[in-house]
Amino acid sequence: MTKTRIDARFAALKAEGRAAFVPYVMAGDPDAATALAILKGLPQAGADLIEVGFPFSDPMAEGPPIQRAAQRALAKGMTLTGTLDLIRSFRADDQTTPVILMGYMNPLVTWGFEAFARDAAAAGVDGVIVVDCPPEEADPLADALEANGLALIFLTTPTTDGKRLPTVIRRASGFVYYVSVAGVTGVKEADAAAVAPNVERIRKAAGLPVAVGFGIKTPERASAIAQVADAVVVGSALVDEVAEAVDLNEDVTRRVLSKVDSLAKAVRFARRGLTAV
Amino acid sequence: MDAPARPNDYTAYPDDKGRFGDYGGQYVPETLMPLVHDLDAAYAAAKADPAFQAELAGYLTHYVGRPSPLYFAARLTEHFGGAKIYLKREELNHTGSHKINNCMGQILLAMRMGKTRIIAETGAGQHGVATATVCARFGLPCIVYMGAVDVERQKPNVFRMNLLGAEVRPVTSGSATLKDAMNEALRDWVTNVHDTYYLIGTAAGMHPYPEMVRDFQAVIGRETREQILEVEGRLPDAVVACVGGGSNAIGIFHPFLNDEGVKLIGVEAAGEGMDTERHAAAINGGRPGVLHGNMTYLLQDREGQITEAHSISAGLDYPGIGPEHSWLHDVGRATYLTATDAESLDAFMLLSKLEGILPAIESAHALARVGDVARDVGKDGIVVLNLSGRGDKDVGTVAAHLGRQI
Predict the structure, then answer these.
(1) Chain A residues whose beta carbon lies within 8 Å of the beta carbon of residue B191
(2) pLDDT for B155
(3) Best of B303, B306, B318, B326 to mutate (most A CBs within 10 Å, chain A)
(4) In chain A, which residue's Cα lies nearest the Cα of B305?
(5) How far apart are CA B304 and CA B233, in angstroms?
(6) pLDDT of residue B7
(7) Chain-centre distance for alpha carbon B151
(8) How far is B175 from chain A (nearest CA, A)?
């Protein structure tokens, strides 16, 4: 098989000796056109990989920021079909930045795993994270994604102990996501000292890069996590920028990309002991 | 697609993956997986422990007031002119519904597991009240998540929970109703993994809840079986129950699953009618999908977004249904009918006047179909209806629909 975009990107970053910065944006938030403008601006603003949320009516693991983002997107008519359209448009200009879809099971069940995997691959998606699909339920989806060259990225958490870890990483590909806090997105704060040994443990067991997310809001925190993880994911803090820009009638794209820029710089320079802010 | 094969033993389900055929499972975030595995193991141990079962039986007798009577409804029978109709009087339980059976079982399990904080979701407030009751009885802190819309329309139950010492947290996310209360309870559980027990109120959600809640509610069916054999010397021809999540229905159905001669009939809420979008009938108006940890029939749009349920009965106002019902429907062992808001109001009034029993508006959905079932079974037949709750809580709703001030 040819090298995937995810593998190529992590290999390049490893050569550079730094962690990846991975912004999360919600498809269709605040509307499809603005979300596409944000998406297209992300690589320039410092995104190494991109997570694109597809909205679901009942996002049970999300805190208020991403719940509200999903509500905004759904209110504007965003769907999984629309999400793939966005990614197709993004891919027209960018063939190298990996794009990971993140969301919940039911829209995929509705689409059908085989058809979804084929259509997502054709749109330029590289991997999928399904929050309510633990490894015990993952085989049918994993088979379909694998057959189409897409990675299924699994979540590990502070409650995933050593006994359970092999089950979780059994079908992991691309990278492994470490949820740094027991909780929903965007509420508790991640602690780099507590995260470090877990990242090490998972990286060793899975032989894959480890991305850390949930609870990283500031450049300072992103920098601290970037010193111990292979990738730093920021989601809630970015969708909050969308909400605030909409409230204040500001340029949403500029505001989000400016936040991405400061976070990306913090990650980029984290291991050189430089301060980017 | 062909209907799946009927099993030889219906009671052998769920399988070791928590599945009833294609339905059920454990679709939860990774943070919760170790917890649901722990719960599964703890429940299996408790289920097999005679001391646990004896303790539960003691509380069911002396605190809940079991067994509940099986009552021959002579005037209702005469009114319909068909089979003899018996009512299983779950509305006579402490707190006024079948909900307490499950709460008592789960609170004993929670304490056995060393959990010190109880959370629950509630729609109408019946499960919230039952949970607050057992928490008060055993001195455990109780937090009940309730949609802000429901908090507004069920104020007496909110106050009742407060009197029992529970904290009611209004949920404003999503559609601010029962499904959102369940989302919020799951978010609480994900955040408080060490000390918290999530006491789910219906036979839905991730494994082992559908099995566990069914087992705790199956006391209804076991008693019914014994009681009908005692008074009639034979099993009934049909058993009828209303279905939202479906815990009272699966509780009375389960001990009859292997008696193929006993028809099992669930009644879903048709709201303003099955030809409108305002109903809560997951089987009759939905299709399979994944929500709240299980694969089951759901109300959803073309893209798989969950749509809002509508019913006059807050207790049936949920877009899903327990996975065992989905399976019993697919294999043809149970039949799922519907009753509208208007039909249920008529049935509410009918039972009140004929038998002197105000039924819960939920149970009135089953009553709305029991006449058809009784006539279908015929004069020599026997029908049992699960009268799952009492209607005192619904007098405001009924008055409003009659255009009366109280």
Answers:
(1) 182-184, 187-188
(2) 87
(3) B303
(4) A57
(5) 49
(6) 87
(7) 20
(8) 9
Is A242 in a helix, a strand, or coil? Answer: helix
Instruction: Look up A51 and say whether it is catalytic.
Output: yes
Token pair listed for B14:
């769920």
Q: Where are the alpha helices (DSSP H) in B267-340?
A: 282-285, 323-331
pTM (predicted TM-score): 0.96
B29 and A134 in contact (C-beta within 8 Å)? yes
Picking from B15, B17, B19, B30 by the largest number of A CB atoms within 10 A of its own CB, the best residue to mutate is B30
CA gap A262, B382 in Å, rounded: 74
Q: Please answer whether residues A169 and A154 qualify as being in contact, where contact means their C-beta atoms are separated by less than 8 angstroms.
A: yes
Whether B303 and A105 lie within 8 Å, measured CB to CB: no
The stretches of chain A forming alpha helices (DSSP H) are 5-16, 32-45, 64-75, 80-93, 105-111, 113-123, 139-147, 165-169, 192-206, 219-226, 236-247, 252-268
- Please tell me which residue of chain B has the smallest CA distance to A134: B30
Q: CB contacts < 8 Å between A and B, how many?
A: 119
Q: How far is CA B313 from CA B220, B260, B268, B391, in A?
A: 22, 31, 11, 11
pLDDT range class, residue A273, cuts 50, 70, 90 = low
Which residue, among A17, A100, A63, A41, has the nearest Cα to A186 in the 3D structure? A63
Q: Is the pLDDT of residue A3 over 90?
A: no
Is B27 in Cβ contact with A132 (below 8 Å)? yes
Taking alpha carbons only, the member of A236, A212, A235 closest to residue A223 is A212
In this prediction the ipTM stands at: 0.95
Residue A189 is among the residues annotated as catalytic for this protein: no
Per-position DSSP letters for B88-106, written without gaps between them: EEGGGSGGGBTHHHHHHHH
Evaluate if residue B263 carries a pLDDT over 90.
yes
Which tens digit of pLDDT belongs to each residue from A154-175?
999 999 999 999 999 999 999 9
CA distance to partner chain B, nearest, from residue A135 (Å): 8
* Chain B residues touching A168 at Cβ < 8 A: 30
Confidence of residue A277 (pLDDT cuts 50, 70, 90): very low
